[in-house]
Amino acid sequence: MAELKADVLVLGAGMVGVGAALHLQQRGRDVVLIDRHAVAGEETSYGNGGLIECASVFPYMFPRDFGQILRYALHRAPQVRYRFRDLPDFLPWLIRYFLASSPERALHSAMAELPLIQRSLIEHEALIAEAGVPELLRRTGWIKLFRSEATLANAVKDLARAQAHGVAGEVLDSPAIIAREPHLAGEFSGAVYFPTPGFVPDPGGLAKAYAALFGRKGGRYLVGDARTLEASGGRWRVATLEGTITAREAVVAMGPWSDQIFAPLGYSIPLQVKRGYHLHLRPRGNAVLHHPVLDADLGYLLAPMNRGIRVTTGAEFAHRDAPPSPVQLEQALPRAHKLFPLGEPVDAMPWKGARPCLPDMLPVIGRAPRHGGLWFNFGHQHHGLTLGPATGRLLAEVMTGETPFADVKPFAVERFG
Q1: Nearest-5° angle of CA 88, CA 263, CA 81?
Q2: Is CATH 3.50.50.60 correct for 1-61+101-138+199-271+358-417?
Q3: Are the beta carbons of 220 and 32 closer than 8 angstroms?
Q4: What pLDDT, in 10s, does the model give residues 35-90?
């Protein structure tokens, strides 16, 4: 079988990998997209709230309030779950996460990522138009519900801070909540409505639509094992079902599996995962959910997906490939049924995925410093769907010698030593 050749191999066909492949292709590169699945968007990109979160200026940092930390530690808050026996494995990373979440360092992370957040919806709109799938973007915004006056007050403060960076938002009282979502039930102190974020009712489908666009424009998609990546004669080589393929450059965009590439190559990058779960349920009767709705105090989100109402959970700190333990989902479902008229599940089993996170909640984007032709683009924490096309553009600009639209230095792997 003849050896195949390309300019760039992009390893991983989630939203981040597909975004990088499309932007490199736009700049004249012969790109091959490689994934272990036969179609794109089957892992982390499939399971999320479907939000293109252009209003999320400040990343999800470790809390600084001792009472909140204690509630998390004692499993008294539904937003976070962990197993005590796994804590020794996660504790060093959690300490780094805590230190990176100081007010000064958290602001640094926010300002570094701000140009990407601001560009996120713009890049998606362009690709959605080119891919011909306008039905996969709804301009509804989303709603964060608060059950206590204290959490609402904190949310109002957070909104004011975000508004200083151009974020639009509106505080809703109970009548205004019901006016927007007539089928919700419950006692709420108020809500914050973010009108500008886009909503994708089929996130995995959007990744597939982008991959199809990539294919129509001449890109190749191959099923292969990225773990076979090796340097050979100044090129990078990967084994696929269609034979070995080589390229001058390779991009690691494998999300929570990126360590399978960088660790054997000698890079010590503190990549960890926050696992999450979802389940689709049918709405009962004529009930309609118009926006994604976060029940912030109870730690779950409802999103009106094409497949049904998706119930998503908070973060579970567990080993990436450990068996599922959907306790948070089991706790969320009775609460979700009280909030909105939900019927029978659509899915036979809950879905489990993993969000790839670095302690400073910034991705790694840029050159692998000790290996010529190797590039990194992973660790997008809760914002892989949001940032995939924007970070794909940033990486492609750096790789092709263009002036990047944002400073890439804060995302360099060298920040970890």
Answers
A1: 35
A2: yes
A3: yes
A4: 999 999 999 999 999 999 999 999 989 988 888 889 888 888 899 999 888 888 99
One-letter amino acid for residue 364 of the chain: V
* Angstrom distance (rounded) from CA 214 to CA 342: 37
Alpha-carbon distance of 239 to 245, in angstroms, equals 6
pLDDT in tens, 93-109: 999 999 999 999 999 99
Burial, 61: exposed, middle or buried (Cβ in 10 Å; 0-12, 13-18, 19+)? buried
Domain ranges of the chain: 1-61+101-138+199-271+358-417
Over its C-alpha atoms, the chain yields an Rg (Å, rounded) of 21
Of 5, 6, 7, 9, nearest to 35 by C-alpha is: 9
Residue 1 has pLDDT above 80, yes or no: no
